[in-house]
Recover the amino acids of this structure.
């Protein structure tokens, strides 16, 4: 069976991934000048989009079918779901998509931009395979994800350990009202769940090596390259930041996540979180002094952002 690689920099391919498996409501927005069409602006079509390719019709099959004129371009404006299809005769806009596979939107956003904001929660089904993640679609329309490394996967519906950690965090924080205290306690919990902070003071022990060994052992027992994050007992800043953001989203803690790669070890990703407390922003220490909060633009915040623990616990600057 033949497959086609999808390019994240192509709006058409990106729209294919975003809409994959989702029921969409598509509204005819306008008619191109001088064109005749039986469908008037404002009409709505609903169903799953089939075979999205330039030069072919946009096809929807579902509650109300559509076969448009040939697709000439796709535009994606303010958000991953702000999609317009420009055909030979008309412009169609997606006005709604169901919640099925919303993980694609958030995961793609993180893959593209390397960050998620305060209002961008990590959904169950979220994945990250690193900057070289690729997508392929076969002739039957099935989408597959490939990555040179393991694909980190977060979904407590299928990951019992992640569900346990989520429930523990909720139980731990449910009676705490002070937002600063909540963020600090969650940071300490995440650090403890992924190996603690003793490695920062013991250069003879590498948290990167321990994490890599554990990942290798987990994947040996798996049939694919998906790594459920909840199964890890050790984690670098990259894994800790993902777990912190996921749990913060479920405990009403406003947080961001940003990732980068180091000059010294470009295959290793580093990530950090920022929380908003009383309209101020703080970096969250998950590595060296778990629970410490460093106000944005302070020297300690800059030092934490630019610090990456390696096998010798040296510090390296990040590639921005």
């Amino acid at each position: 069976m033949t497959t086609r690689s999808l390019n994240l920099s192509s709006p058409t391919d990106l729209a294919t991934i975003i809409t994959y498996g989702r029921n969409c409501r598509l509204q005819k927005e306008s008619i191109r000048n001088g064109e005749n069409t039986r469908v008037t602006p404002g009409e709505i079509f609903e169903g799953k989009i089939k075979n999205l390719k330039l030069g072919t019709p946009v096809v929807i099959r579902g509650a109300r079918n559509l076969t448009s004129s040939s697709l000439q371009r796709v535009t994606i404006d303010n958000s991953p779901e702000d999609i317009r299809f420009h055909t030979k005769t008309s412009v169609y806009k997606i006005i709604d998509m169901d919640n099925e596979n919303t993980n694609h939107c958030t995961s793609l956003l993180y893959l593209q931009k390397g960050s998620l904001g305060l209002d961008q929660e990590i959904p169950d089904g979220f994945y990250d395979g690193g900057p070289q993640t690729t997508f392929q679609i076969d002739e039957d329309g099935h989408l597959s994800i490939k990555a040179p490394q393991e694909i980190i996967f977060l979904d407590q519906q299928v990951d019992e350990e992640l569900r346990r950690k989520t429930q523990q965090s909720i139980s731990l924080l449910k009676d705490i009202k002070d937002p600063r205290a909540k963020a600090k306690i969650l940071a300490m919990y995440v650090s403890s769940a992924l190996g603690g902070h003793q490695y920062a003071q013991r250069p003879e022990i590498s948290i990167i090596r321990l994490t890599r060994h554990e990942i290798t052992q987990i994947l040996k027992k798996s049939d694919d390259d998906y790594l459920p994050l909840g199964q890890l007992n050790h984690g670098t800043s990259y894994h800790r930041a993902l777990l912190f953001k996921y749990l913060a989203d479920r405990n009403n803690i406003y947080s961001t996540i940003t990732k980068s790669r180091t000059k010294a070890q470009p295959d290793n990703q580093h990530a950090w979180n920022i929380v908003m407390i009383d309209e101020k922003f703080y970096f969250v220490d998950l590595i060296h002094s778990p629970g410490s909060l460093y106000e944005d633009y302070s020297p300690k915040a800059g030092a934490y952002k630019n610090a990456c623990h390696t096998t010798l616990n040296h510090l390296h600057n990040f590639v921005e």
Summary: The two ends are 40 Å apart (CA to CA).
